[in-house]
Amino acid sequence: MNEPAVTGPTIVVAGGGTAGHIEPALALADAVKRLRPDAKVVALGTERGLENTLVPARGYPLELVPPVPMPRKLTPELLRMPGKVRDSVKRTREVLRRVGADVVVGFGGYVALSAYLAARGNTPIIVHEANRHAGLANKVGARFAQRVLVASPGIPLPRAEVIGIPLRHAITSLDRTAMREQARKEFGLDPDAPTLLVFGGSQGARSINEAVSGAAKDFADAGIGVLHAHGPKNTLVVREFPGRPPYVPVPYLERMDLAYAAADAVLCRSGAMTVAEVSAVGLPAVFVPLAHGNGEQALNAQPAVAAGAATLVPDADLTAAWVAEQVVPLVVDKTRLETMSTAAVGLGHREADEVLAKIVLEACGA
């Protein structure tokens, strides 16, 4: 008589909408598969989220459920919320039952709220919060979660345990020096020139695009190469300067590990994931927090700034003239760059992905 095949646990991750929610979920998924190759990881998402691109590209199944946007003010939309919540929770509960979820791990965002409510009382829940200001979904989920994990101290969630942010293994294991030649060849950059990496999040940032491209001649005159991800919906036309290191604009960076390896410094937004990755690879940074919102991007950057690994400039102060006066001298100053890079060491939690994976597997009895 043949014994039934032993199958591994099924982990459902919920963190759709933005890369800041999706990337930690995928880093966890990769770590789970390294520890338990027989495990199944299923991602929840919505039809409009960035997860529709990122999740399938990483080889994980994606289940779509209706989103539940949470109005912040008393509006007619708020009056329609109960029906939308019930529908989304019902659909999510059906997904959890069909895939045989052993644990639900939420990272915030619209889809996480439905996941928490659908799993409550039936499936163990683990919450991870990356931002200094916890989102509404995670505030709700933390009330009945088995474990609550956070990126850094001071995040106001009950029973919070600090583990850092799960990062891709390609980032935490990156040897920038060893990969530099390959990375610069991949992007068509000068192999020897000091190089600045520029990006403004997955969709780009107009203020960053305008300020940095406006200083293109200053970079060229200083012998600096630039790799600039301007966003898939934006265009960036930069004058070429023959005989000088190239300024390379690209819509999107598929291989962030190669982009980090190509660079000597980075100018970028300071989302929680970005700060964690930049710190993990030891890249000196100029952070430009989003001008709107609750100020959490500035808070995200503070530990790196305080340690001497980064500088911060308000979005309103970022101009082509400021870039020429402040960023150009930084990128050509090898001593300062080395000091900043050394300061970044130890800021992050490089093992957060496997720490979280072990917690998750323990929660489902694996």
Folded structure, characterized:
- The chain is of the alpha/beta class and 366 residues long.
- It folds into 2 domains: 10-167 and 350-363, Rossmann fold; 170-344, Rossmann fold (3-Layer(aba) Sandwich).
- It is built from 16 helices and 13 strands.
- The protein has helices at residues 19-35, 51-57, 76-79, 81-99, 110-119, 136-141, 169-172, 176-187, 206-213, 216-221, 256-262, 272-280, 296-307, 320-331, 334-344, 352-363; strands spanning 10-14, 40-45, 62-64, 103-106, 125-129, 147-150, 160-162, 195-199, 225-229, 247-250, 265-268, 285-287, 310-312.
- The chain has a 7-stranded parallel beta sheet, with helices on both faces.
- Helix 12 links the parallel strand 11 and strand 12 (285-287).
- Helix 1 (19-35) packs across helix 16, helix 4 (81-99) packs across helix 5 (110-119) and helix 8 (176-187) crosses helix 11.
- The protein starts with 9 loop residues before the first strand and ends with a helix.
- 50% of the residues are buried.
Short summary:
The chain is of the alpha/beta class and 366 residues long.
CATH architecture of the largest domain: 3-Layer(aba) Sandwich
Overall structural domain count: 2
Our count of helices gives: 16
Low-pLDDT sequence parts: none
Number of strands: 13
Order of helices and strands: EHEHEHHEHEHEEHHEHHEEHEHEHEHHH
SSE map:
Layout: E1 10-14, H1 19-35, E2 40-45, H2 51-57, E3 62-64, H3 76-79, H4 81-99, E4 103-106, H5 110-119, E5 125-129, H6 136-141, E6 147-150, E7 160-162, H7 169-172, H8 176-187, E8 195-199, H9 206-213, H10 216-221, E9 225-229, E10 247-250, H11 256-262, E11 265-268, H12 272-280, E12 285-287, H13 296-307, E13 310-312, H14 320-331, H15 334-344, H16 352-363
Parallel strand pairs: 1-2, 1-4, 2-3, 4-5, 5-6, 6-7, 8-9, 8-11, 9-10, 11-12, 12-13
